[in-house]
Design goal:
alpha/beta, Aspartate Aminotransferase, domain 1, 2 domains, five-stranded mixed beta sheet, about 35% helix, binds pyridoxal-5'-phosphate
Length: about 375
């Protein structure tokens, strides 16, 4: 069955006898037991909830894993994932990482005894000299945020297997519709479901999808213990969002290609970062491991004044954090998502006062070009 169909029909498990086409929202904290020592399969909503289970099974099917766990946010998912590790453990992470993950690692996980090294994983050999006897995992994002660098997932998996490390891939930007890291050798896939999966800028959600029953068991134990599970209504919103994932992404990436092609020709634009452009250094890797280039791009303008002017002149596009929804959003990574990354490090990576990041929504492509055009004028 094509993934487009899977998005719509989900896990197909039914929880009621009415024939409801839309899975019901089981707004119940707890569930009655039929007898002593018996369970309907649902005991308490922190552990299991039918609406959430439907969503988890849908994601598990889309990513072809053995289990998927739905969290209240993407960061809740990454935080729970860190509970797999113990003080003294070392993790190698991509240096161009979502700012919130960077903040978690450097300010909370480090306090709890974990150690982190950062590498430009678009050159995967650069992780090799960082591996020590304490290294337990490699954590990557591809394409990366906001510089759109691409990491070869299969090559990363080969290194991880050789050194007995877990490969964790944050697949938020592409979703299973465009890229399936587990099939390329990853052990755990992370999502901010807030973005493309839910897709409407109306709910927060997060996921972990895993490859082995052993990992699933360890993470389920952490999950029921730490309690950062997704609420039934937010689960339902995410189920509804996923139904249109394929059509949304098809259109969004089509529009993204039109916008970057146009943008590259404009004055005041120094550089455009998008994995689908012919001059992108890892375009071939992307063609090999993904079904599309996604709908996120970044661009560097000539000076900070131009950047500020653009942010304040848009009529349709909105200046707001987040991405992946039906509304086009533009962010200023330096002040928003990456504000907690030290300045020198930010500058070295190209996250400067001239860099803007664009999340392409579902508006008409020409309307978006017109809006960019008047903002740049
Ligand atoms: C937004 C985001 C997160 C965090 O997700 P929340 O749902 O906001 O907690 C993690 N990784 C990436 C790539 C993101 O874009």
């Amino acid at each position: 069955m094509d993934i487009t169909t899977c998005c719509i029909h989900g896990s197909r498990k039914t929880y009621d006898r009415t024939g409801a086409i839309s899975v019901p929202i089981f707004q119940s904290a707890t569930f009655a037991h039929p007898g002593v020592g018996e369970s309907t399969g649902f005991d308490y909503s922190r552990l299991q909830n039918p609406t959430r289970e439907y969503l988890e099974q849908t994601l598990c099917t889309l990513d072809e894993g053995v289990d998927a766990l739905a969290f209240s946010t993407g960061m809740a998912a990454v935080t729970a994932l860190m509970e797999l590790f113990s003080p003294g453990d070392h993790i190698i992470a991509g240096e161009d990482l979502y700012g919130g993950s960077h903040r978690l690692f450097d300010h909370i996980s480090t306090k709890n005894g974990l150690a982190f090294s950062y590498a430009d994983t678009s050159d995967i050999a650069s992780v090799l000299p960082l591996i020590t006897e304490h290294t337990r995992a490699v954590f990557i994002e591809t394409p990366s945020n906001p510089m759109m660098r691409v990491t070869d997932i299969a090559a990363a998996a080969a290194i991880c297997q050789m050194h007995h490390l877990l490969l964790i891939v944050d697949n938020t930007f592409l979703t299973p519709y465009l890229q399936k890291p587990l099939l390329l050798g990853a052990d755990v896939v992370v999502y901010s479901g807030t973005k493309y999966l839910a897709g409407h800028n109306d709910t927060l959600a997060g996921f972990l999808v895993v490859k082995t029953p052993e990992l699933a068991e360890r993470l389920r134990f952490i999950y029921k213990t730490v309690g950062s599970c997704l609420a039934p209504f937010d689960s339902w919103l995410t189920i509804r969002g996923i139904k249109t994932l394929a059509v949304r992404l098809d259109r969004q990436q089509q529009t993204a290609m039109k916008l970057v092609t146009w943008l590259e020709q404009q004055p005041h634009i120094d550089r455009v970062y998008f994995a689908g452009l012919p001059n992108h250094p890892q375009r071939d890797i992307m063609l090999r491991q993904s079904r599309g280039f996604g709908a996120m791009f970044s661009f560097q303008v000539d000076c900070a004044e131009t950047a500020h002017k653009i942010l304040e002149s848009f009529k349709i596009v909105q200046y707001a954090e987040s991405l992946g929804g039906v509304e086009s959003l533009i962010t200023y990574p330096m002040l928003q998502t990456h504000a907690d990354v030290p300045m020198e490090e930010r500058e070295r990576k190209g996250i400067n006062d001239r860099l803007l990041r664009f999340s392409v929504g579902l508006e008409d492509a020409q309307d978006l070009i017109d809006d960019l055009s008047q903002a740049l004028a």
